[in-house]
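Expect chain and fold; see below:
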Amino acid sequence: MAQHYYVVSWDQLHRDSKALAWRLNAMRPFDGIVAITRGGLIPAAIVARELECRLIETVSIVTYDEEERGEPRITKPPTAAGDGTGFLIIDDLVDTGTTARQVRALLPRAHFATVYAKPAGKELVDTFITEVSQDTWILFPWDTEPQFIAPIARKV
């Protein structure tokens, strides 16, 4: 179980994904983008729009069940990306690097970028925007919803 939680709003994710696109813009052109599902889908769409990249492929690797990590399983390979030459891999987060190692093995010649990175995995990606501590669990906007919280005074 995580010791800390970091809540990312839709607005913040959009700003951070756009910041990633700014960094990647100097490396253009890319032939296509490989989004790591599911977390990389929305950042990949934002980056694809900003870089005017129309070819988006996906790779599906199942690693987590809620907060429990398991053995990675490739459930959909990124066939159109070949060995990754000319492709940009996008994910929301590199954590321990388990998924990143699997994708790197599939696409060794691609440029790997994530919006967020933890210390254990950040050396596996070429570009990222924000580093968070290893003991922090990021709550992405697709994992949360607004709800009423009682005032502090009522909790005493």
